[in-house]
């Protein structure tokens, strides 16, 4: 970017760049409209209920998703926008599409509880802000933009975390806030050091990479680690995971589902870009891949082991999502085009499986089932819901015939491929804890079906034809379908190219 | 229609399971009839298959082959998975056995009273998964069916089992899952190393391609001419070992057998039957279909380990059976002992030994079905299976006694029954073998004596002597076999007799396979 450019040129860039910002503008408009609905519609102001804000927000996410899909065709190569601060490419579009759908599903899941919930329009606006922040973060390459997007996601998330309006919610929200602010400050410090070292604020630029190569020092390692801390916080990866269990346990279920997917994937996207730059096309002396690999192993193992001891379903899923972040990081460790493509496949499958699980956890929560032993006997009274939940959990474990198996297989293939390319035995050693963890994870993932089907309990039969079962069935069919025909999704992912 | 017999065999039960979803859950009889109808149609299909099967040579029959999916992996090439089914002298007898046993198990399931809908759906899924495992020739497809057996069995034991069902089902699940992870690691290594002939960029799961050493990429982990060493041992040996342990858990082989007695004791009778008669066979089948042919070099150098553990299983299983107080536990340990013969025959790498191992799998499938039904008959009447609680039963249950005599004598290897043929062939192979030590064969003969001992001792304790029943049950509860039970036992008893008197009926299928198998092993040496 030309810093010395005059005001008219800058205005011209902004005008041109806005043309590529369709989905974001829609989301932004959605936020405004939803907030205005809350003010203008008297019934909402009086505190009574209406689903209008949810409906508007839902439409906004769906339109944003459609526009992101429409962009796909024109994104043969990446487009720099706003003077290089953001990049519009298929890599970011992929995450945008997933997060838009996740946002839409979150709003759908919020539907049944909206009668009991206060401030629905603010709630919808906050969900939209998280999605908007994710749109920005997945496109960001400028440090300022990265920081702003992280903050947009974070601040909206802090409020959403406390949306149960209960004591624990407030506590979790505060914890999240304090932790998040510290993480953001650390990240900002790291980014500022990197800016000082390289002289460039845009991590994808040639200047930045050359600057890194010129300063292969301990300071760079420290600065890089500090910057990573912020991304890892968003992904809930060790050692930045401490907030997750408390927040997951206290927040409303749709919000937990949102947290478990959307900020995580955005963090992953920006982390991938950052590591790509930091390794400097393999010339860096600092072995960033080994660092990420180590973090991934520790995260997978610690997340799984901690999940073993959980008896609260939401808390268990919190540790599960920590462990799953580790698997996503394995895709980054490979850091080949295929490795990253496999990671994106994994991300999509993880998203679907997680939403199946959370949709049903919410359903059971509404029937008073909170802890895992509470599931006892529900398998008899409600076999349809429990069977669909079972498929979601099996997919998270990674057993056929679900796409979770294919995703794990591909992630490990990518790792082996990377190993063949650089002959670093460390990569091969990640495989072993990865596979062993599949066995550990089975213990806690199957604990819910175990109680539901095998333990006797009080329960009354329920009817099958509910909208939640319909939603669950659709998502489960996606999981099964992607096992039998993974090429349908990989065909799209293969069209994503990026500069390595 | 006959072009897709194997597909129909797999998908018919799945279709029936789907139909069952829409039947109201209180119509127990409908589910029984539905399952029976599915099994009967399968039986008809199998008869058609038998009539079309020509058994002169060892090649694959009834082959169905389609592209499943191809994944483009960029510079890494393609991943190709196929829908590839076929049977040969190894799998065809096992498929026939599966349909036969499933039919019997379906009739035996009529005593199940609770949760009939879920029960029959699981049985039907299991049916499809077992047949699929036996006919799949693509590793990914095989693994799909292999894993698909796990959950239905877990729930069958865990929901319809006895008092310690939860413990038993979890133990079963964990052991089998650990085994399948080991198998999966080997499969991943295979697909990373192997490729489609003439196209080095396409990685394949096709077992037939992976049998040919020329289809491995130069320098890949499992390249037969490569120099890959892990801990000073070639990667191919490691991969063989992973497959061996993985399938040995399923088999089960001492010391990985401890899940089996628990699972059997707790499982409902039909689930025990399916577990012992069919699921254990997947272990032996996997070794003979995947571990040995894909790694003939490693198999030949490690065959003595296979043989050694086979003999350990024979002796240890027999000794533990002798010490068992629970009739069902005794039968479970006798299974461990008898599956040891499969390992020994396979390890001998001779024509007779290998054919004997396959024969033993079929024969054990038939005999063990009878044995578990026998235990089930007693349990249905008194809810008590302790051997010491019964005495002099021969007097009040003559038909039952006759069936027990046939089953026990068949199982201990009396000439005239199928078990004798299988074991004698295994011994012929083991004594002649150049791969395993003679002492192993000699020790294994001890297993025959022990087998005779525990069976005869059991008969003596339970059926002879003065009539009395201890442990709370009344003598009046012990009524003799009913019509439904006789219908189940008759074909089983007839089969083991026919196979014992006319072994050629089965051997003509197995022999071409055994010839090819031994040739493959010696070619790789």
Describe the overall structure.
The complex is a heterodimer of chains A (500) and B (525). In chain A, α5 packs parallel to α15 (337-366), α8 crosses α9 and α17 (383-397) runs antiparallel to α20. Helix content of chain A is 75%, strand content 1%. The model of chain A has no long low-confidence stretch (mean pLDDT 86). Chain A has helices at 7-18, 22-40, 42-45, 52-72, 90-110, 120-139, 143-161, 167-198, 206-214, 218-235, 243-250, 253-278, 288-308, 313-334, 337-366, 378-381, 383-397, 403-422, 425-445, 447-454, 467-484, 487-493; strands at 79-81, 86-88. Chain A starts with 6 loop residues before the first helix and ends in a 7-residue tail after the last helix. The longest helix of chain A is centred in the middle third of the chain and has 32 residues, at 167-198. Chain A has 22 helices and 2 strands. Helices cover 70% and strands 7% of the residues of chain B. In chain B, the strands form 3 sheets. Chain B has a 4-stranded mixed beta sheet with strand order 1-2-4-3. Chain B has a two-stranded antiparallel ribbon with strand order 5-6. Chain B has a two-stranded antiparallel ribbon with strand order 7-8. In chain B, α12 (296-323) runs parallel beside α18 and α13 (327-348) packs antiparallel against α18 (438-463). The A-B interface holds A 336-338, 341, 380, 383, 394, 399-401, 409-410, 412-413, 416-417, 435-436, 438-439, 442, 446, 450, 453-455, 484-487, 490-491, 494 and B 68-76, 79, 115, 118, 143-144, 147-148, 150-151, 155, 158-159, 165-166, 169-170, 173-174, 177-178, 181, 184-185, 188, 192.
Report the major sheet of chain B. Answer: 4 strands, mixed
Mean pLDDT of chain B: 90
> Which secondary-structure class do the elements of chain B indicate?
alpha+beta
Q: What overall form of chain B do the CA principal axes indicate?
A: globular
Percent of residues in helices of chain A comes to over 70%
Major beta sheet summary of chain A: 2 strands, antiparallel
Strand order in the largest sheet of chain A: 1-2
Calculate the terminal CA-CA distance of chain A, rounded to whole Å: 21 Å
Low-confidence stretches of chain A: none
Secondary structure category of chain A: mainly alpha
Strand percentage of chain B lies at 5-15%
Q: How many distinct helices of chain A? A: 22
How many runs of DSSP E, i.e. beta strands of chain B?
8
Shape of chain A: globular
Helix and strand element order of chain A: HHHHEEHHHHHHHHHHHHHHHHHH
Oligomer: heterodimer
The radius of gyration of chain B is 23 Å
Beta strands of chain A, count: 2
């Amino acid at each position: 970017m030309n810093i010395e450019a005059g005001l008219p040129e800058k205005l011209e860039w902004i005008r041109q760049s806005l043309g590529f910002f369709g989905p974001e503008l829609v989301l932004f408009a959605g936020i405004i409209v939803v907030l205005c609905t809350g003010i203008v519609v008297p019934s909402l102001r009086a505190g009574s209920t209406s689903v209008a804000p949810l409906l508007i927000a839902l439409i906004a996410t769906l339109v944003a998703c459609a526009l992101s899909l429409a962009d796909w065709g024109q994104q043969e190569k990446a487009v720099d926008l706003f003077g290089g601060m953001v990049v519009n490419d298929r890599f970011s579009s992929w995450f945008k599409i997933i997060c838009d759908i996740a946002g839409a599903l979150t709003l759908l899941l919020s539907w049944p509880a909206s009668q009991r919930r206060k401030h629905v329009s603010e709630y919808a606006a906050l969900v939209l802000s998280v999605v908007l922040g994710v749109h920005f973060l997945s496109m960001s390459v400028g440090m300022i933009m990265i920081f702003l997007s992280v903050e947009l996601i974070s601040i909206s998330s802090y409020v959403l975390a406390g949306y149960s309006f209960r004591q624990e919610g407030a506590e979790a929200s505060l914890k999240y806030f304090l932790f998040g602010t510290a993480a953001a400050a650390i990240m900002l410090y790291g980014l500022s050091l990197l800016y000082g070292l390289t002289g460039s604020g845009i991590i994808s630029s040639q200047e930045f990479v050359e600057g890194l190569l010129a300063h292969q020092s301990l300071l760079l390692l420290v600065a890089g680690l500090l910057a990573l801390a912020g991304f890892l916080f968003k992904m809930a990866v060790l050692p930045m995971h401490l907030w997750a269990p408390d927040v997951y346990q206290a927040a409303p279920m749709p919000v937990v589902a949102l947290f478990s997917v959307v900020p995580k994937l955005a963090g992953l996207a920006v982390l991938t870009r950052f590591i790509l730059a930091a390794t400097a096309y393999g010339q860096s002396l600092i072995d960033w891949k080994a660092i990420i690999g180590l973090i991934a192993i520790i995260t997978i193992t610690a997340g799984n082991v901690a999940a073993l001891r959980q008896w609260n379903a939401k808390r268990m899923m919190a540790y599960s999502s920590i462990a799953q972040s580790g698997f996503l990081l394995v895709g980054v460790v490979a850091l080949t085009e295929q490795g990253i493509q496999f990671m994106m496949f994994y991300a999509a499958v993880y998203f679907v499986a997680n939403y199946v699980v959370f949709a049903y956890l919410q359903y059971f929560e509404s029937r008073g089932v909170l802890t895992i032993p509470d599931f006892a006997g529900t398998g008899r009274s409600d076999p349809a819901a429990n069977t669909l939940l079972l498929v979601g959990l099996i997919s998270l474990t990674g057993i056929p015939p679900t796409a979770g198996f294919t995703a794990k297989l591909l992630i490990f293939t990518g790792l082996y491929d990377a190993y063949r390319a650089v002959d670093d035995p460390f990569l091969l050693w990640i495989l072993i804890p990865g596979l062993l963890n599949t066995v550990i994870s089975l213990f806690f993932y199957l604990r819910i079906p175990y109680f539901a089907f095998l333990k006797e309990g009080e329960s009354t039969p329920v009817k099958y034809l509910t909208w939640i079962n319909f939603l669950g069935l659709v998502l489960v069919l996606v999981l099964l379908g992607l096992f039998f025909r993974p090429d349908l999704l990989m065909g799209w992912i293969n069209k994503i190219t990026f500069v390595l | 229609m006959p072009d897709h017999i194997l597909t129909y065999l797999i998908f018919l039960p799945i279709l029936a399971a789907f139909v069952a979803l829409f039947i109201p859950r209180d119509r127990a009889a409908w589910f029984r009839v539905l399952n029976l109808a599915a099994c009967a149609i399968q039986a008809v299909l199998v008869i058609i298959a038998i009539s079309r099967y020509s058994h002169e040579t060892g090649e694959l029959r009834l082959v169905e082959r389609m592209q499943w999916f191809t994944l483009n992996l960029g510079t890494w090439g393609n991943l190709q998975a196929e829908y590839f089914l076929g049977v040969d002298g190894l799998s065809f007898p096992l498929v026939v056995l599966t349909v036969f046993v499933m039919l019997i198990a379906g009739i035996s399931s009529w005593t199940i009273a609770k949760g009939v809908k879920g029960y029959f759906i699981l049985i039907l899924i299991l049916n499809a998964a077992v047949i699929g495992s036996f006919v799949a020739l693509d590793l990914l497809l095989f693994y799909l069916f292999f894993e698909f057996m796990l959950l239905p069995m877990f729930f069958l034991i865990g929901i319809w089992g006895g008092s310690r069902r939860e413990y038993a089902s979890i133990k079963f699940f964990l052991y089998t899952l650990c085994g399948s992870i080991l198998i999966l690691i080997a499969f991943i290594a295979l697909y990373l190393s192997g490729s489609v002939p003439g196209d080095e960029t396409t990685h394949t799961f096709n077992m037939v391609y992976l049998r040919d050493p020329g289809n491995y990429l130069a320098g890949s982990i499992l390249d037969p001419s490569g120099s890959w060493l892990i801990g000073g041992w070639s990667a191919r040996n490691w991969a063989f070992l992973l497959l061996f342990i993985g399938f040995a858990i399923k088999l089960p082989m001492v010391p990985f057998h401890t899940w089996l007695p628990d699972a059997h004791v707790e499982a409902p009778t039909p689930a025990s039957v399916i577990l012992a008669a069919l699921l254990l066979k997947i272990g032996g089948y996997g070794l003979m279909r995947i571990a040995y042919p894909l790694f003939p070099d490693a198999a030949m150098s490690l065959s003595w380990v296979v043989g050694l553990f086979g003999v350990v299983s024979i002796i240890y299983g027999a000794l533990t059976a002798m010490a068992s107080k629970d009739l069902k536990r005794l039968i479970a340990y006798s299974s461990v002992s008898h599956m040891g013969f499969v390992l020994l025959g396979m390890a001998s790498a001779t024509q007779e030994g290998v054919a004997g191992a396959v024969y033993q799998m079929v024969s054990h499938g038939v005999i063990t079905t009878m044995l578990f039904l026998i235990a089930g008959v007693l349990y249905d009447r008194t809810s008590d299976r302790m051997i010491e609680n019964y005495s002099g039963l021969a007097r009040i249950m003559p038909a039952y006694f006759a069936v027990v005599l046939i089953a026990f004598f068949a199982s201990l290897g009396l000439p005239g029954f199928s078990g004798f043929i299988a074991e004698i062939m295994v011994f012929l192979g083991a004594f002649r073998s150049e791969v395993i030590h003679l002492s192993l064969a000699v020790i294994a003969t001890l297993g025959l004596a022990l087998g005779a001992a525990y069976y005869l001792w059991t008969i003596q304790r339970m059926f002879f002597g003065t009539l009395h029943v201890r442990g709370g049950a009344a003598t009046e509860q012990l009524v003799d076999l009913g019509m439904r039970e006789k219908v189940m036992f008759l074909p089983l008893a007839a089969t083991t007799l026919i196979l014992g008197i006319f072994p050629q009926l089965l051997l003509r299928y197995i022999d071409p396979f055994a010839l090819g198998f031994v040739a493959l092993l010696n070619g790789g040496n």
